[in-house]
Amino acid sequence: MNRIVLVRLLAVAALLLLFYIALRRTTRVPGRGQTIAEMAIDFVKVQIVDQILGEKDGRRFLPLLAAMFFGILAMNITGIIPGLNIAGTSIFIVPVVFALAGYIAFVYAGIKQHGGLRFFKNQLFLPGVPWPMHFILAPVELLNVFIVRPISLSLRLLLNMMVGHLLLVLCFAATHFLFITGEGLGFASAFGVLTLIGGIVMTVIEFAVALLQAYIFTLLSAVYIQQSVAEEH
């Protein structure tokens, strides 16, 4: 148990508690909490799942993709919450876990839809390509589809959240130095105001990045699942 593990546990607990409070007594005419929760889930359903997977496949994978979206979002936002100040996704293991969940869903959906042999054929052998070229392209597709995809998903999320965290630390550490440690310097107050404003602006940007990265991660996972259930590559 360390600080970032505690932050992750708090993010998950807060997420579960909010949805439990909002949806524990659902009614035909929803109250404010139920309305907000339904709008949040509907955002994932309409903007990601239905558009990419369609209604039939979307219904199957909505629970996974919604959990992925809100889980990533909750852990991203901890980076800008005072007292927590670190994103739960800013260390590699959590992005990898989410990427592996999407990867397993991708393989499972393809094998269930087509059978194992046809699934791997669809992923590795591009249609319309002269057969001698498959000796070159099949290994490339194997590397791209089954190795690069989960790694790239993980790294995209990790690096965005880690860089945002470092920029926030830089802005507010500079503000602390200029206002307190560097109090005797003539320019300290002026530059301290600038770094403080920069930190506030970066906090707003980091919130937007947290939301955007959850959206992109979930969207790409849905795209990969859709490619696995499609008839052709």
UniProtKB/TrEMBL annotation:
Keyword set, alphabetical order: ATP synthesis, Cell membrane, CF(0), Hydrogen ion transport, Hydrolase, Ion transport, Membrane, Transmembrane, Transmembrane helix, Transport
InterPro entries the UniProt entry points to: ATP_synth_F0_asu, ATP_synth_F0_asu_bact/mt, F0_ATP_A_sf
Localization per record: Cell membrane; Membrane
Taxonomic lineage from the root: Bacteria, Bacillati, Actinomycetota, Actinomycetes, Micrococcales
Organism: Labedella endophytica
Domain of life: Bacteria
Family affiliation: Belongs to the ATPase A chain family.
Membrane-crossing residue ranges in chain numbering: 6-23, 61-84, 90-111, 157-179, 191-216
Record's bilayer topology term: Multi-pass membrane protein
Principal location: membrane
Name of the molecule in the record: ATP synthase subunit a
GO cellular component: plasma membrane; proton-transporting ATP synthase complex
Gene Ontology terms, MF aspect: hydrolase activity; proton-transporting ATP synthase activity, rotational mechanism
Entry keyword annotation includes Membrane: yes
HAMAP family associated with the record: ATP_synth_a_bact (MF_01393)
Keyword Ubl conjugation: no
Main function: Key component of the proton channel; it plays a direct role in the translocation of protons across the membrane.
